[in-house]
Amino acid sequence: MKRWELFRELRRHRKLANKRAFNFEQNKVAKYLVGFVYALTLIYLIFFAIIFSLAANDSRFMTTVEFIMAMSPFILLIDFLLRFTAQQTPTQLIKPYILLPISKYTCIDTLILSSLFNWGNLTWFVMFITYALMSIVFTHGIWVTLGVFLCYYLLILINSQWYSLIRAYINDSLVWWIVPIIVYLFVFLPVLLEGWSFMFKFYASIGTAISEGSILPYLIPLAILAVIVYLNRKVQFAHIWNELAKTEKTKSYDSKHYSFLEKRGDVGQYIQLEIKSTIRNKNVKKGFIFATAIVFIMSLVIALTDAYDNEFMTNFWCLYNFVIYGAMLLVKVMCNEGNYIDCLMVRRENILKLLQAKYIFYSAILLFPFILMLPTVFAGKWSLFMLISYAFFTAGFQYFILFQMAVYNKQTTPLNTKFISKNGIENNYFQIVAEMSAFIIPMMLVSTLQALFGETISYVVMLTIGMIFILTHPIWLRNIYLRMMKKKYELLDGFRASR
Predict the structure, then answer these.
(1) Is 331 exposed, middle or buried, given 0-12, 13-18 or 19+ CB atoms closer than 10 A?
(2) Residues of the chain with pLDDT under 70
(3) What's the Cα-to-Cα distance from 315 to each of 28, 402, 439, 462, rounded to whole Å?
């Protein structure tokens, strides 16, 4: 079989694996909602293209080509950050292919090619094409326009491979976040040296070179892309191979017993299980640390700067900081337990007690963002009543939404392995919809309440809604449990098949 035929065959396997997944039918429904959000994103890109075009047409200091290239550092930074929510890492169920008599890099090459020629890499062109039609085509001609498109396309491809490369290391340790921070500090180095005007002139020179017909704006990105693809190829395979070949290392832990939890019976035991799973299991611990880091950084930024002091951003970041643990960890409720779901099914109402324990655990960790955001209250930016009402609203209504995923999640999340697991590529669109609902619905509600009744009344309503869902949590958790039991065989099949 020729190399290109291998690529096609492995790509076909990937598509078939997605179609045969247990969550394929529910994902079909959720994809429509995700598609709606994607369509809104395209509308926003067109809107920004119009703004850029109007600004560029009125600029006396640079041409329209220079203007759009001067924006490249900001566009690429946003593109890089958005890939953490959208781009899949180049991993898959690779064990069977490693043992076949084919080139050891074939699987990796296939997935790298898929990430390079992904339709998502063309999303920004909605903005570029709109901008070009308004500001470039009729003043600079079609060839300069195509030159801008080619340059940006190469830069976006570099971003896709750069993200994939650094994401592999971040999966190893969150300390690797230092690398992209240093890289983007270097990208914005002209600002530190001479200020913003110098930075715009520096990157606008790329547009000047394109207008003059130079080949450097294409050769340099092409060379960088070739180097990053080569490094990414090596790094991805090394990570997967190390995970396949490593010997299991056991680490001794002091088996702590929390006496105050043992008095709560089975629910207390499950709370201890949540605590110990977070401390001991690699992927669970990494997710918790990452969520805590986001909350800490955002709380620091809000407390020390005036960047988010308007009414909308105040509500958004306060709600966001509270729900971040739920959006990153609780949305995958029961996915970790999929590794031993058979044991949980042997006794009546075991799952219900586990859900109750999870509710208590995730409600308790809301103390972290609450304490971290207190300096904002002491600084006089936010009110303590707002902080309390949003905390109760998150523990009540938002957790009510996220806990519904217990009925729909049926893919096991590996506790330690990352690269060779069947769940290496996350494609549960229901989780995305649940996360979006947890963010969008509260913002719509609080914005409407504040517009109609003012801040104090809106906080009272939010607190009341939160308290109602907190007080009734035994009722709706039992409802979730009963719905799970009605489809328990379907859930069992899904969890077993995805281990």
Answers:
(1) buried
(2) 1-4, 11, 14-34, 85-104, 243-263, 307-309, 416-430, 499
(3) 33, 20, 11, 12
